[in-house]
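Quick start: what a row looks like.
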Amino acid sequence: MAASTKLSSFRLPPLPTIGEIIKLYNLRAEKQLSQNFLLDLRLTDKIVRQAGCLRDAHVCEVGPGPGGLTRSILNAGATDVLVVEKDTRFISGLKLLSEAAPGRVRIVHGDILTYRMDRGFPDTISKPWDGDPPNLHIIGNLPFNVSTPLIIKWLENIANRTGPFAFGRTQLTLTFQKEVAERLTASTGSKQRSRLSIMAQYLCTVHNCFTIPGRAFVPKPKVDVGVVHFTPLVQPQIQHPFKLVEKVIRNVFQFRRKYCYKGVEKLFPEASRFELTQKMLQNADVDPTLRPTELTIPQFRALADAYAHLCMHEPSLLHYEFREELRLKPLTKQGNKPEDTFIMDEKLNKNKHGKQEKPTNSLF
């Protein structure tokens, strides 16, 4: 009976529905901000369940909007919910929710990309990195336009144990476009394997929980939405500074349909490209004719080890960027194509349409 009374104390009192809140405050989803409202509380409850037990938890919710997901977090038993909302129009509705749950909701009007979450919670909730995760969760129905830069920022925080990860291995439960969710969790050799796959999986256990159809949102987006859960690993699978690892992965995936040596080449200045590419691949014991999507995380670890070893002997390599060299190269010399490091059928250097593939900047 006591347990039932305690559980009921977590439940919110009767409130206007999310649809009524939207009408009451004349709220509209802004297309330029990639806003889409999720009105079905059964779905918001399902998202929250992916985070695990929230009884007495501290939660940071990213972009609460009209507060549907916030209600589910509160009903799950969280006692301290910090909501970070950039859009001024939603603040009044969130204050109404705060008044319905006295002392349990704190509202920050600001940008999650710049907000110092490490200052938002007491140090007493911290847990040792090699212990259990702290009773702190990050949950959010992320706008599409901020989801990828935000997860990259948090992955770097995980590597450096800063920001929300100063408290320990803080878990995240977030929404992404379905395609991005699939890339985050893609396995070796799959079509969705990408830079984002490696960056997420070398630092975290990543689980694609379920897909929400686009028709569940208002307004309906053109794509479905995936819910992804992240738990930081006690030990990263690649033991090097984040920026070095990111640089190796980014360059390898520049030509994702070509053999991996083509991307590795771009880690080095043209004058020493042939020699250093060959040395790095030999030291890493990685087959140069594997494509980036076919490389495992242990193979990326070997590549990072080999690159770090070369940089230790030649520190200037760390600061070298192929695109900067290309930009500064005189136009008259841009047409001089260097010889390939490895001899192969020229047809395999082209994509299926027979066109030379261009390097990509996409994190996907």
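That is the whole record. The longest helix spans residues 144-160. The two ends are 51 Å apart (CA to CA).
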